UniProtKB/TrEMBL annotation, chain A:
<keyword id="KW-0809">Transit peptide</keyword>
<keyword id="KW-0831">Ubiquinone biosynthesis</keyword>
<dbReference type="GO" id="GO:0010420">
    <property type="term" value="F:polyprenyldihydroxybenzoate methyltransferase activity"/>
</dbReference>
<comment type="pathway">
    <text>Cofactor biosynthesis; ubiquinone biosynthesis.</text>
</comment>
<feature type="binding site">
    <location>
        <position position="178"/>
    </location>
    <ligand>
        <name>Mg(2+)</name>
    </ligand>
</feature>
<keyword id="KW-0007">Acetylation</keyword>
<feature type="region of interest" description="Disordered">
    <location>
        <begin position="287"/>
        <end position="309"/>
    </location>
</feature>
<dbReference type="InterPro" id="IPR029063">
    <property type="entry name" value="SAM-dependent_MTases_sf"/>
</dbReference>
<keyword id="KW-0472">Membrane</keyword>
TrEMBL record, chain B:
<comment type="pathway">
    <text>Cofactor biosynthesis; ubiquinone biosynthesis.</text>
</comment>
<keyword id="KW-0503">Monooxygenase</keyword>
<feature type="domain" description="FAD-binding">
    <location>
        <begin position="339"/>
        <end position="425"/>
    </location>
</feature>
<dbReference type="InterPro" id="IPR000689">
    <property type="entry name" value="UbQ_mOase_COQ6"/>
</dbReference>
<dbReference type="InterPro" id="IPR018168">
    <property type="entry name" value="Ubi_Hdrlase_CS"/>
</dbReference>
<dbReference type="InterPro" id="IPR010971">
    <property type="entry name" value="UbiH/COQ6"/>
</dbReference>
<dbReference type="GO" id="GO:0042995">
    <property type="term" value="C:cell projection"/>
</dbReference>
<protein>
    <recommendedName>
        <fullName>Ubiquinone biosynthesis monooxygenase COQ6, mitochondrial</fullName>
        <ecNumber>1.14.15.45</ecNumber>
        <ecNumber>1.14.15.46</ecNumber>
    </recommendedName>
</protein>
<comment type="subunit">
    <text>Component of a multi-subunit COQ enzyme complex, composed of at least COQ3, COQ4, COQ5, COQ6, COQ7 and COQ9. Interacts with COQ8B and COQ7.</text>
</comment>
Length: 309, 472
């Protein structure tokens, strides 16, 4: 059990890891001893949760610690939206995802759930950390439309697998698989909750020397783009490894594309190179499913194509 | 009135702190607001030409079909039951770019069915010299359109009515206060903008668009600073009858030392006058007898009293040089049609000034139209800049809506701001420069502007660039 201390000036020290966050805003000082360990779960890593717990209330500050995740929405929401639109024949442009049920695993503060909800989907967001769910719930409560479309649950994926077999049109695991303990079980659970022909969207970080240098050393330790201790290089997943886990477990990989973050502008962009961040789209293959390659530009988007694998 | 720069300071509420950059408003909520109130996605404050066009454009936008939009206007509904026979004295020059925007949601068709006047050519010349510049399109296409403001408003109001399911309009509504959420959100404070009307009604919105004119209440309440100064000029407007009917598809503007005088075609027999001059002269013009007024106008256009020999000879030297280089390019000075009558109640005046908001956006607020920028009418760009703002903002909001983003998020609002400030600042600076350059009779400056104007007239690519920039 590691005691956490918040001093009056708002400097928090995580003693076991010697990580120091400095906040200059007014902040209530409070003491928080001990830590709730979650029930043993094959996929949730308790150490990971420690780091996220400290930042639970910072989710919705668009220029704060989670700014890169906010701006990643500019990439991942169109990615999800456009790939899901390919599976429906007619849709209204003003509510493109209406009628779809989406599960966001590891939803955090609900950063991705809310845009998907605004596009008309019925979103279920799950996260093992109670604080995150509380933040997410509080944030959506002010918007009557989102309040009805999104529900949150503090649990892990395995907890809900039994009740939600073949319920969802899409499962989104964005920036999550690099934090889970047992990726194969995770993927199998995703497969179980998806309808046949449903989509799985994953965004994660590749396990390369470049990702160690830029993703861990530069982003975390030098520039502070990502809060320290967020990532462990050993748990990064390469696209090949991901594919090799997806294919035997009932998925057909449709797309893998790289994403690149520009820390100066704060914007992400798509790129051919997957050695840092990448996004993957796979379809559950139990029912006959189209696997033709598509090169289409969706109306309303400027210049973004869904590229082939 | 002394022309001096002054910065408008926002109201300071005791106890509030200015935390961090880009925080809207110095007044923020301390308590919660009732949960049962409807949350609008966009509220447009101000129902003038630009505000109504904004609400129309959003209402007709395909990505906004499931969103709730509200337009707040302090005045009454402006749909013209029947088009009045007399022309209104407030007209605007509409560029092809603005016409495209208006036709994108069907308002241009209404204008065409009412009345408008296209013009094909524009002649701008100096009172102190022979220099002139003529703008026209090679293919004799319409350069722009002169439309009465009332006609534009009526067309917009009709199109707004066509989407009344999505766009709610509240006429005769006066806003008492706007309040933004503070920087540190907690469980009780609503993250939306709170608006209180004079009749006690309270609204919440995710994005507030300020289109309430150059004395914008939205701009004041959000704490955005405004760089502004009054010009020592007022504009006199009137509707004039020409001596004889003519094709009347030319817009005329002459720079007098006291200010530019412009004659804009309204029909084959009517033209609209916009004469910017000193406050005293403007007051005189409005109150003098009709005959004297008409004489003043005609002589302002025709008289060469301000010419000096020195400038004349210097100008003709350069003109001769250009004629040698480009013998085919002839720009003989034409005279505008003479005016014989003025509509009795159409003479009025209004003061002029310059203004530009330092920021166009803050979290959950965006400024468009005169709330963001105010310019001298000499370039005919005021409302066109506003329509340009609308095009840009609608495009960014549309994309944001299709991406499921929170409409009040600063990330796409700053993209709109950058795009429009780049265009508007250059245009305002150029207009202000022209105004100052042409307000003097000092020989060196007159010489400079004479030669400059002649050169610009001779260099066609330069003229085309200017026209392209001004037609957006």
């Amino acid at each position: 059990m590691t005691p956490w201390l918040f001093s009056d000036k708002g400097i928090m020290c995580l003693k076991s890891n010697n990580i120091i966050f400095a906040y200059s805003d007014k902040m209530k000082s409070y003491r928080y001893v001990g830590m709730r360990l979650y029930s043993t779960s094959k996929t949730v890593d308790p150490k990971e949760m420690k780091t996220f717990k400290a930042l639970a209330y910072k989710w919705w500050d668009e220029q704060g610690a989670y700014a890169p995740l906010h701006s990643m929405n500019d990439l991942r929401v169109p990615f999800i939206r456009d790939n899901l639109l390919k599976t429906v024949t007619n849709h209204q442009l003003e509510s493109p995802l209406s009628g779809m049920k989406i599960l966001d695993v590891g939803c955090g503060g609900g950063l991705l759930c809310e845009p998907l909800g605004r596009l008309g989907a019925l979103v279920t967001g799950i996260d093992p950390l109670n604080e995150n769910i509380k933040t997410a719930q509080q944030h959506k409560s002010f918007d009557p439309v989102l309040d009805k479309r999104i529900q949150y649950n503090a649990c892990s994926l395995e907890d809900i697998v039994e009740e939600t077999v073949e319920t969802f049109d899409a499962v989104v695991a964005s920036e999550v698989v690099e934090h889970v303990n047992d990726l194969e079980t995770f993927i199998q659970c995703c497969c179980q909750v998806l309808k046949p022909g449903g989509s799985l969207f994953i965004t994660t970080i590749n396990k390369t020397q470049l990702s160690y240098a830029l993703g861990i050393i530069f982003a975390e330790q030098i520039a502070g783009i990502v809060p320290k201790g967020t990532h462990t290089w050993e748990k990064f997943v390469s696209p090949e490894e991901l594919e090799s886990l997806l294919e035997p477990n009932g998925f057909l990989v449709q797309t893998i594309t790289g994403m690149l973050y520009n820390p100066f502008s704060g914007y992400w962009r798509w790129t051919e190179n997957t050695s840092l961040n990448y996004a993957a789209h796979a379809i559950k293959s139990s029912a006959p499913v189209e696997t033709e390659e598509h090169h289409t530009k969706t109306p309303g988007i400027d210049g973004q194509e869904a590229s082939q694998k | 009135m002394a022309a001096c720069a002054r910065l408008t300071r926002a109201l300071l509420v005791p106890g509030a702190t200015l935390g961090g950059p880009r925080l809207p408003g110095l007044r923020w909520l301390s308590g919660s607001v009732g949960p049962g109130q409807a949350v609008y996605d966009v509220v447009v404050a101000g129902g003038g030409m630009v505000g109504t066009a904004m609400a129309c454009a959003l209402g007709h936008n395909v990505h906004f079909r499931d969103k709730k939009i509200l337009l707040l206007e302090a005045g009454p509904n402006k749909v013209l039951g029947k088009l009045p026979a007399t022309y209104s004295n407030r007209v605007s020059s509409i560029t092809p770019g603005s016409a495209t925007l208006l036709s994108s949601f069907g308002a241009w068709d209404h204008i065409c069915n009412m009345r408008y006047k296209p013009f094909r050519r524009m002649q701008v010349w100096d009172a102190c010299s022979e220099a002139l510049i003529i703008f026209d399109k090679d293919d004799l296409d319409d350069m722009g359109y002169i439309v009465e403001n009332d006609v534009i408003m009526s067309a917009l109001a009709k199109q707004l009515d066509a989407v009344r399911d999505q766009v709610e309009v509240v006429y005769k509504s006066k806003v008492i206060s706007y309040t933004w959420p503070g920087p540190f959100l907690d469980a009780e404070t609503s993250p939306w903008v709170q608006i209180t009307l004079a009749n006690g009604r309270q609204l919440q919105t995710k994005l507030l668009i300020g289109a309430d004119g150059h004395n914008s209440g939205v701009r004041r309440a959000s704490g955005i600073q405004n760089v502004c100064w009054p010009y020592d000029q007022s504009a006199v407007v009137a509707t004039l009858h020409l001596s004889e009917p003519t094709d009347n598809n030319v817009a005329w503007q002459r720079f007098l030392p006291s200010g530019p005088i412009a004659l804009l075609p309204l029909s084959d027999t009517l033209s609209s006058l916009v004469w910017s001059t000193s406050h005293e002269h403007a007051a005189e013009l409005v109150s003098m007898e009709e005959e004297n007024f008409l004489d003043a106008i005609n002589s302002a256009f025709w008289s060469d009293a301000s010419h000096t020999d020195f400038i004349d000879s210097a100008g003709s030297v350069l003109q001769y040089a250009f004629t040698l280089l480009q013998p085919t390019n002839s720009s003989a000075r034409q005279l505008p049609p003479s005016v014989a009558k003025v509509d009795p109640k159409s003479r009025t005046l209004f003061p002029l000034g310059m203004g530009h908001a330092v920021e166009y956006v803050r979290p959950r607020v965006a400024l468009i139209g005169d709330a963001a920028h105010r310019v001298h009418p000499l370039a005919g760009q005021g409302v066109n800049m506003g329509f340009g703002d609308i095009s840009s903002l609608v495009r960014h909001l549309s994309r944001a809506a299709f991406n499921g983003k929170d409409l009040g998020s600063l990330s796409h609002l700053t993209e709109y701001e950058t795009e429009r400030q780049r265009h508007n600042v250059s245009l305002i600076a150029a207009t202000d420069l022209l105004k100052r350059l042409y307000s003097t009779t000092l020989s060196p400056l007159v010489l400079l502007r004479t030669w400059g104007l002649q050169t610009t007239n001779a260099v066609s690519p330069l003229k085309e660039q200017i026209m392209a920039f001004a037609s957006k």
